[in-house]
Amino acid sequence: xxxxxxxxxxxxxxxxxxxxxxxxxxxxxxxxxxxxxxxxxxxxxxxxxxxxxxxxxxxxxxxxxxxxxxxxxxxxxxxxxxxxxxxxxxxxxxxxxxxxxxxxxxxxxxxxxxxxxxxxxxxxxxxxxxxxxxxxxxxxxxxxxxxxxxxxxxxxxxxxxxxxxxxxxxxxxxxxxxxxxxxxxxxxxxxxxxxxxxxxxxxxxxxxxxxxxxxxxxxxxxxxxxxx
Length: 228
Description:
- There is one protein chain.
- The protein has one domain.
- It starts with a helix and ends with a helix.
- It has helices spanning 3-17, 20-27, 66-84, 89-110, 115-123, 125-131, 136-155, 163-177, 181-204, 214-227.
- Helix content is 67%, strand content 0%.
- By secondary structure, it is an all-alpha fold.
- Helix 7 runs antiparallel to helix 8 (163-177) and helix 9 runs antiparallel to helix 10 (214-227).
């Protein structure tokens, strides 16, 4: 394990995560609504232009779990650095942490996975295609198979999946396809092992409600990448 590499990964994860709370707060709105122009917590209007989006720290003084966001960003990056080491894939996966964490924050707040962010995460598959051209066809096949399977589930009554979940699952399956089919399977199974017990516990307590599936999908992909 390279200590300098781990430290650099931790700094990268923490520093990029520090910019995400404001962006997540502005984008965590119902489908079809524009991004927030004012803080939902204190009512203060956001500045126009980049200044209204780019901010290190909490969205406002009342923004919850800012420290936890930074900690998760640093922890995920360190885990990738420890398990992947000085691999060409490491920078790709570190970059993927940024849209991945942002998607998780938004989904936890409003049960929504914005298409542009899912597409941004999908862009990280392009460098992997250059690094592993021999795995391009299996990776695309994995994404297509998962997309078709999840779409059928989403279309079933009470399927519990949204189209955003379907698209994210397909993108993650494509990325994992470069690591091999065992990684794809792990990335598919783990999210259900995460959300399943939570849904059952809520149901037994009479608090059944829709659960965000995006964070579980992203956690499953992380486990798959670091154990492949």
